[in-house]
Design goal:
With 301 residues, the chain is an alpha+beta fold. It folds into three domains: 91 residues, Rossmann fold (3-Layer(aba) Sandwich), CATH 3.40.50.20; 120 residues, ATP-grasp fold, B domain (D-amino Acid Aminotransferase, Chain A, domain 1); 63 residues, Dna Ligase, domain 1. Helices cover 32% and strands 27% of the residues. The chain is built from nine helices and 16 strands. The strands form four sheets. Strands 14-13-12-15-16 form a five-stranded antiparallel beta sheet, sandwiched between helices. A hairpin with a 2-residue loop joins strand 12 and strand 13. Helix 1 packs across helix 9 and helix 2 packs antiparallel against helix 3. The model has no long low-confidence stretch (mean pLDDT 88).
Length: 301
């Protein structure tokens, strides 16, 4: 097969791992910067071009679209869907997961455990908003943040009010969430492929830090997850409509809660910790499922 990875940087670990895994399986692998693609949006013959080349011969795509280019990146993925090219993670699912508010509303509607979360536009009722999520300490998150960027822990009520009002003062959309003290700076990353968890790890924040992201210096170790945690992660992936994703969970006194569903999970940390070739498992999934027209939405999302 001819498989295109939509990624801006060839040298990234995850992108390179997917290229090597695909080539090891005998596939023609290409890395395509979605920002360099341009499209002919015609009902009779939609096409997509890259650096002067028509990409109509692509059989499947693997979107590795960064949060900063979600709008254009998903437009490119949607165009491939319109051309009946198999998309590992469909454009509508990526868009759904990238919107933290929308994703939490969808998960909540299906009964998935979540931290108590507030959302508001006005600063007039900040006191009640803080009270609604259980008071300080609490976590304030930018809706568009990734890798722990735009996430602030407010340790007292005055700090919480200041942070919330500062973000809203610059018209930033934010979520206000309860702080899960019993998690003690730890979370779980579950890697889901095709409705099955293929690997999991526990991440721990640096001393004095509450964000456990590996990009922020957190450490990771192998962990055994419970049946409830497994079920929660698989259900969350299904609700988002993602074939491949990383589901981040916190262990609380009342069971697992979902923090985020990541449509482009990094492979380096979890491959190094578990010793599993996740990239090869992704290629295996594509081989079993990539057929023309197999994409459910076909660009309709």
């Amino acid at each position: 097969m001819k498989i295109a990875i939509l990624s801006r940087k060839k040298y990234l670990y995850s992108t390179n791992a997917l290229v090597e895994a695909g080539e090891a399986h005998g596939h023609d692998m290409r890395v395509i910067n979605p920002l360099r693609c341009y499209m002919n949006i015609a009902s009779h013959n939609p096409t997509i071009h890259y650096k002067g080349e028509d990409l109509s011969d692509i059989d499947a795509i693997i979107p590795r679209i960064g949060a900063s280019i979600t709008f254009y990146g998903t437009a490119v993925a949607r165009q491939f869907e319109m051309m009946n090219v198999y998309n590992l993670n469909e454009s509508v699912a990526i868009t759904r997961s990238r919107d933290k508010l929308r994703s939490m509303q969808l998960l909540s509607r299906k009964g998935i455990g979540l931290p108590v979360t507030g959302f508001a536009n006005s600063t007039k009722f900040t006191d009640d908003l803080i009270k609604m999520v259980g008071g300080a300490p609490l976590v304030v998150k930018l809706l568009e943040g990734t890798q722990g960027i735009g996430v602030v822990l407010a340790e007292n009520t005055q700090a919480a009010k200041s942070v919330i009002e500062a973000f809203q003062g610059v018209k930033a959309n934010i979520l206000v969430q309860e702080y899960i003290k019993e998690a003690k700076g730890k979370d779980l990353r579950c890697l889901v492929i095709g409705g099955k968890i293929v690997a999991s790890m526990q991440r721990k924040a640096l001393a004095g830090e509450f964000r456990s992201n590996l990009h922020r210096g957190g450490t990771a170790s192998i962990t055994k997850i419970t049946p409830e945690e497994r079920s929660t992660a698989v259900r969350a992936a299904k609700i988002m409509g993602l074939n491949v994703c990383g589901v981040d969970l916190l262990r609380t006194n009342h069971g697992p809660v979902v923090m985020e569903v990541n449509s482009s999970p990094g492979l380096e940390g979890i491959e190094n910790v578990t010793g599993k070739n996740i990239a090869a498992k992704i290629i295996d999934f594509i081989e079993k499922n990539a057929k023309p027209g197999k994409t459910k939405t076909r660009g309709q999302g």
